[in-house]
Design a protein that fits this description.
The structure holds 2 protein chains of 2 kinds.
Chain A (H helix, E strand, L loop, with lengths): L2 H7 L15 H6 L6 H12 L8 H8 L6 H5 L6 H11 L4 H14 L3 H17 L32 H4 L10 E4 L1 H7 L1 H13 L15 H6 L2 H17 L4 E4 L2 H13 L6 H11 E3 H7 L2 H5 L9 E6 L2 H4 L18 E6 L9 H5 L1 H9 L2 H7 L3 E4 L2 H13 L5 E3 L1 H16 L1
Parallel strand pairs in A: 1-2, 2-3, 4-5, 4-6, 6-7
Chain B lengths: L16 H11 L2 E2 L2 H5 L14 E3 L4 H14 L3 E4 L16 E4 L6 E5 L4 E4 L5 H10 L2 E2 L12 H7 L6 H4 L6 E7 L5 E5 L11 H5 L8 E8 L1 E2 L3 E9 L2 H13 L6 E6 H4 L16 E9 L1 H17 L4 E4 L3 H12 L1 H4 L6 E8 L5 H15 L2 E7 L4 E8 L4 H20 L18 H4 L2 H14 L17
Parallel strand pairs in B: 2-4, 3-4
Antiparallel strand pairs in B: 1-2, 5-6, 6-10, 7-11, 8-9, 8-10, 12-14, 12-15, 13-14, 13-17, 16-18, 17-18
Classes of the chains: A alpha/beta, B alpha+beta.
């Protein structure tokens, strides 16, 4: 039996108790059964029992309306792996033309081929032209419609050269650290990558940043393109092993979770299966690594009251459960007694990768649930450690005409430590 | 897993195109695709009956128009809340139209001076709990499914929960109702006051009527002031008998905790291993006791209960340290029912009630049946009020096991009634228990109930096939 089959048979374990309704962000917005895991499990089980639903529009729509946030799998009393099940059904479904276009444009972002470079560079140049009228303050907030997504208010400004090509340093640090930037920090949010390098240098660590590293594969996996996800996983494993690191750092929660997903994807592979296990064992979230290091002792030895801010910290779904699960980074804010943090730890932001592109309005409605608390709480800044969440907040805030800065926790940390240093000096 | 798909005889013309068009004109959206119908074919019984169409009314007058249409054209109507019921109340056993009430989900008013709330039926129970708690108030009915069940469903089934020993069940908190009866008429029952004896008590009649008399469109609910604090105790015993005797003794001594839940050894095995305080390996029974009130009173009751537990050979007694521990314990308790599937793919679940002093007798009976049949039987439930979730886990494709289970259920029911108990405390009859109804209700009373049903629903369009045994189909 293939992995795909095993995953789909999982649907039969669902006993329809309905507990998933209490956590599903999509169901709570629509209040329709097709949107919650038990509805999807009923459909997939029906399909498996040859009710021939797969090719109907309603079935495809139902299967596509999932964020893969994992809340249902986490809470399920019968331990149904709803995520794997839905992904496997997506894999089996004939990709519609729209999905094919989406996958191919993602492919160009992920590939290291010439066309990929051209796509990135041309879009960057194009944006620079269009973006002239937009103030530098909101440099990322371009009001420009992407081909299929006309209602989108924000499109990414893709950096003209990826972070990995700007940075070349051989590792001579005591611990051999490899930094897997992911597409987010590499193409869209360079300051995140720069902040990590800065912070590591402060504790005398110099990471390796392989310039050949590929996309982690999550977007393809979520879209049901397992083959592409597997091939990216293998290529990444080859590249990472080349440097035989002792620690593998990520700054994106989704990349982190996908590195653990590699184990699952390759578990039937006699060659890569064991290697994927070893790689996953090396993984550590960068923020978590810094919090455990002596960075704080060295850089912020005493309580600091020079930074006064209201922060909203959003814990990405990929860090809320699963193999890459992490506690809230409360330690990060301890040294700053004038920093007031609101933790958001129980709701998906509504991004869900492909979900935000294919179900934009629904995605924004799910995001909208938190807007009132932003308004009431006078939030100065939003911190989150996942590229997807980061993109969602940028878009969602703009949709609600709100101007709040969004950044990675390490980017924030690096800035405030520098700022504090300037003040105390 | 083998699952039987109970396909109804397809009454293809029960909802013709003209009717569907009219439904669409009423609510704007009617689901009829195979895929959508499959998503409303089940409830938490895990049985399947595929309806012909689904609508989501958003206003009382839409419900009225839908029912009038159904009554005129005589097609079945099945009201549905969250679909979390355990006896099939929301299943379209004769096809027809499922009316999903989840979009009527507004809390209309919370009257802080008179402690009543006006709510729509689609409000999720857990959301309502949180809302009133923030105002310093308390709505006691708390079924295991409260995180996702709806208040309308709770009222229609007269849901209970663990605190019935002290605070009663849903019916004790329903003051008044807006109900649309099958001819489309809106009736208003009950009062907004603590007292009220004008006319027949239709509120109580409709509460627990399982969607067979009307569709509830608005409810006036009674609230209480929130108790100052609570304390959760977990106690493990070497035998179920000791635990059960302890429960009777606690009540006999005049101590009325908010909750006394009990779990037998098979249910304990479904608790998570990280349960606060751990689980002693030799434990054969467990009580979860929650006391509420003012702190001094809690302290004194707590020490009395602990000393009683010691008299009944408790292996370990633990006071929960904080709210998150208490929450973890309750969460684990609420997850038992679905977690039982680790024993076998199919579940027969009965929620019988016996006078609480007779729980030890009931427990003995279960032991006897377990030994006689070798079936996996689990009992847990609301020991404080005698409501026991008696469960048999089996593989229904095993004909021998199924046969044994049928005999066991029959004798459990007979024994329950011989103790002065009742067949269902809070799940209702639905389709799961209708075959046994005549064991408890005599023919004359049952005949009167049928006449009441007829007075509300002469054409039998509303939730047909439920409660009454041997309904001609």
């Amino acid at each position: 039996m293939t992995l795909n089959h095993q995953n789909l048979n999982n649907a039969g374990k669902c006993i329809r108790c309905g507990l998933c309704m209490s956590v599903c962000p999509v169901y709570q917005e629509s209040l329709e059964e097709r949107d919650v895991a038990r509805g999807k499990m009923a459909l997939i089980e029906g399909e498996q029992n040859s009710f021939k639903l797969k090719d109907t529009l309603q079935f495809k729509e139902a299967i596509s309306r999932c964020l893969l946030c994992g809340a249902c799998a986490h809470i399920c009393p019968n331990k149904v792996q709803t995520n794997d099940c839905i992904q496997s059904m997506r894999q089996r479904m004939t990709a519609t033309i729209k999905e094919k276009i989406l996958i191919s444009s993602l492919s160009t972002l992920s590939s290291q081929t010439l066309s990929g470079q051209i796509f990135r560079k041309s879009s960057s140049v194009f944006q620079k032209c269009v973006g002239k009228e937009i103030s530098e303050q909101s440099g990322l907030h371009l009001r420009f419609p992407l081909t299929s997504i006309s209602h989108r208010k924000w499109i990414p400004r893709i950096s003209s050269s990826p972070f990995t090509s700007q940075y070349t340093l051989a590792s001579n640090s005591p611990k051999k650290i490899l930094y897997f930037t992911g597409c987010g920090a590499n193409y869209l949010f360079n300051p995140t990558a720069a902040a990590l390098i800065d912070i590591l240098q402060n504790i005398n660590q110099v990471p390796i940043v392989p310039d050949k590293q590929m996309c982690c594969g999550l977007p393809f996996y979520a879209a049901g393109d397992h083959q592409k996800a597997i091939s990216l996983a293998k290529k990444n494993i080859d590249i990472i092993e080349n440097f035989s690191p002792a620690i593998l750092l990520t700054t994106c929660g989704s990349c982190g979770a996908q590195i653990h997903q590699w184990k699952q994807l390759l578990k039937n592979d006699s060659n890569y299966g064991q290697r994927a296990l070893r790689i996953a064992a090396l993984h550590k979230d960068a923020t978590d690594f810094i919090l455990e290091s002596d960075y704080f002792k060295k850089m912020i030895p005493s309580q600091s009251d020079t930074i006064v801010e209201n922060i909203w910290y959003h814990h990405p779904c990929h860090m809320r459960w699963g193999d890459a699960q992490l506690e809230l980074p409360k330690k990060l804010f301890k040294p700053f007694n004038q920093v007031n943090v609101t933790y958001s730890n129980d709701q998906c932001c509504g991004y869900g990768g492909k979900f935000q592109i294919s179900h934009f309005d629904l995605s924004m409605k799910i995001f909208h649930r938190r807007v009132d608390s932003f308004k009431q709480g006078n939030i100065d800044r939003i911190l989150t450690s996942c590229t997807g969440c980061h993109l969602q907040f940028l878009e969602g805030l703009l949709q609600n005409d709100m101007s709040v800065s969004v950044m990675h926790p390490l980017d924030w940390l690096n800035r405030v430590v520098k700022k504090r240093k300037n003040i105390t000096n | 897993m083998i699952k039987k798909y109970l396909e109804k005889n397809n009454q293809a013309n029960s909802l013709n195109k003209a009717i569907l068009r009219q439904l669409k004109a009423i609510t704007g959206k009617v689901l009829t695709a195979e895929s959508d119908r499959r998503c409303y074919a089940y409830d938490a019984t895990n049985m399947e009956y595929v309806p012909d169409a689904i609508v989501f009314p958003e206003h009382e007058d839409q419900v009225s128009q839908i029912l009038k249409l159904a009554n005129d054209h005589e097609f079945p109507i099945v009201p549905r809340g969250a679909g979390s019921g355990l006896t099939g109340g929301a299943l379209a056993v004769k096809g027809g139209l499922v009316v999903v009430m989840t979009r009527m989900n507004q809390i209309l008013n919370i009257d802080m001076d008179n402690l009543v709330a006006d709510v729509q039926p689609g409000v999720v129970t857990g959301i309502f709990h949180k809302r009133v708690q923030r105002l310093g108030l308390f709505y006691p009915p708390d079924p295991s499914s409260s995180a996702y069940s709806t208040l309308g469903g709770n009222v229609a089934e007269c849901a209970g929960g663990p605190s019935a020993v002290k605070y009663g069940v849903t019916r004790d908190y329903v003051l008044g109702l807006h109900v649309v009866i099958p001819d489309g008429t809106l009736i208003q029952t009950g009062v907004r006051t603590a007292k009220g004896v004008v006319g027949y008590d239709l509120t109580r009649l409709i509460t627990g009527s399982e969607g067979t008399l009307g569709i509830i469109t608005q409810m006036t609910l009674k609230l209480l002031p929130k108790p100052a604090s609570t304390q959760v105790l977990t106690v493990f015993y070497p035998s179920m008998h000791k635990a059960a005797e302890n429960v009777s003794e606690i009540i006999r001594k005049g101590l009325i905790p908010k909750t006394i839940e009990y779990l037998d050894h098979a249910a304990i095995a479904c608790m998570p291993s990280d349960l606060p305080g751990g689980i002693p390996p030799e434990a054969r029974a467990m009580l979860i006791i929650e006391i509420d009130g003012i702190p001094e009173q809690i302290e004194s009751e707590c020490s009395k209960i602990i000393s009683l537990a010691n008299q009944y050979q408790a292996i370990s007694i633990r006071k929960a340290d904080n709210t998150s521990e208490s929450n973890a314990i309750w969460q684990a308790r609420k997850a038992i029912s679905p977690a039982l599937y680790k024993y076998a793919p199919d579940k027969i679940n009965e929620d019988i009630v016996v006078p609480r002093s007779l729980i030890p007798d009931f427990v003995d009976k279960v032991d006897e049946l377990r030994h006689a049949t070798g079936l996996t039987m689990i009992t847990f439930g609301h020991a404080g009020d005698g409501n026991i979730h008696f469960t048999v886990m089996l593989d229904k494709s095993d004909a021998v096991a199924q046969k044994k289970a049928d005999i066991v259920i029959e004798s459990i029911f007979d024994y329950t009634l011989s103790l002065g108990g009742t067949l269902s405390g809070e799940h209702g009859i639905g389709i799961s228990k209708s075959a046994y109804l005549e064991k408890e209700i005599d023919p004359q009373t049952l005949a009167l109930m049928r006449q009441i049903k007829k007075a509300f629903d002469p054409k039998g369009v509303l939730n047909p096939g439920k409660i009454f045994p041997g309904e001609p189909s």
